[in-house]
């Protein structure tokens, strides 16, 4: 793993996005044509391709790449310690329009991100992600990648749950473990106030109080998501019921 420290910027309520588990297929390159890239770049012609004077698309791509690399390094080491074979997520796919990327025949919606097990890729709405990056900073990217990469790890380990909410809360815990362990190792640096603002961000991505816990797209209440994430952040993967 790299010893280079990376700053976790503050996460605010501006990152009120829905993080979901996806499944299905995205057309991939012919395997004989060469290896697929591990992460994508923003498509040419993106409305987000112009800088707003604060953070450029180039900075977004650099930080998104660093978030992916950090997740790969972390999970590679975890798997090696357990004498398991680790397989990095095959592709990171940005998209611009609803329906541009499909997962199991279902179009990926706007303002969203997901891991798709059939095809082994993480996809995200590029305009939404760049906008959140400009408003929030790179902590949003580390959390987004951490949560979706956790879904990929669940898939590799064959972890399933009867209810979606349990799968999502476990992914929150795993994302927390990933960030907490990386901060403790010194590979990431958390500035003063970051934890409080991460807590605010988890409240922002929580389900509406009227959302039934058994709904197919339930992710958890503010209390549940905060408890899951910080359980992992403080106690590492032993808090995430992976055994």
Give keywords.
single chain; 243 residues; alpha/beta; four-stranded mixed beta sheet; two-stranded parallel sheet; 6 helices; 8 strands; 42% helix; globular; disordered N terminus
Question: Could you give the order of the helices and strands?
Answer: EEHEEEEEHHHEHH
Number of DSSP E strands: 8
Q: What is the residue-averaged pLDDT? A: 78
Distance between the amino and carboxyl termini: 25 Å
Radius of gyration: 17 Å
How are the strands ordered across the major sheet? 2-6-7-3
Overall tally of domains: 1
Tally of individual helices:
6
The main β sheet shows up as: 4 strands, mixed
| Amount of helix | 40-55%
Q: What proportion of the residues form beta strands (DSSP E)? A: 5-15%
What general outline do the C-alpha atoms trace? globular
Structural class by helix and strand composition = alpha/beta
> Which stretches of 5+ consecutive residues score pLDDT under 50?
1-38, 44-53
Description of the structure:
- This protein has 243 residues and is of the alpha/beta class.
- It has one domain.
- It has six helices and eight strands, in the order ββαβββββαααβαα.
- The chain has helices at 57-81, 126-136, 138-157, 164-185, 194-204, 222-235; strands at 6-8, 18-22, 91-95, 102-103, 106-107, 112-116, 121-125, 188-190.
- The strands form three sheets. A four-stranded mixed sheet has the order 2-6-7-3.
- A hairpin with a 2-residue loop joins strand 4 and strand 5 (106-107).
Summed up, what is this model?
By secondary structure, the protein is an alpha/beta fold.
């Amino acid at each position: 793993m790299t010893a280079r420290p990376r700053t976790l910027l503050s996460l605010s309520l501006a990152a009120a996005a829905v993080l979901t588990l996806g499944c299905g297929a995205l057309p991939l390159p012919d395997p004989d044509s060469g290896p697929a890239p591990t992460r994508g770049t923003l498509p040419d012609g993106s409305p987000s391709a112009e800088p707003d004077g604060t953070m450029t698309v180039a900075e977004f791509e650099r930080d998104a790449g660093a978030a992916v690399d950090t997740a790969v390094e972390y999970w590679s080491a975890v798997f090696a310690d357990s004498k398991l074979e680790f397989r990095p997520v095959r592709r990171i796919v940005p998209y611009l329009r609803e329906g541009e990327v499909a997962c199991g025949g279902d179009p990926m919606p706007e303002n969203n991100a997901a891991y798709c097990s059939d095809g082994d890729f993480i996809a995200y709405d590029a305009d939404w992600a760049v906008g959140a990056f400009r408003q929030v900073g790179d902590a949003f990217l580390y959390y987004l990648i951490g949560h979706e990469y956790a879904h990929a790890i669940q898939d590799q380990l064959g972890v399933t749950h009867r209810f979606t909410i349990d799968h999502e809360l476990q992914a929150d815990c795993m994302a927390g473990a990933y960030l907490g362990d990386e901060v403790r190792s010194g590979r990431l640096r958390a500035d003063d106030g970051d934890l409080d603002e991460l807590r605010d961000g988890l409240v922002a991505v929580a389900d509406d109080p009227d959302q039934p816990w058994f709904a197919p797209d339930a992710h958890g209440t503010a209390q549940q998501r905060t408890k899951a994430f910080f359980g992992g952040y403080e106690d590492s993967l032993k808090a995430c019921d992976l055994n």
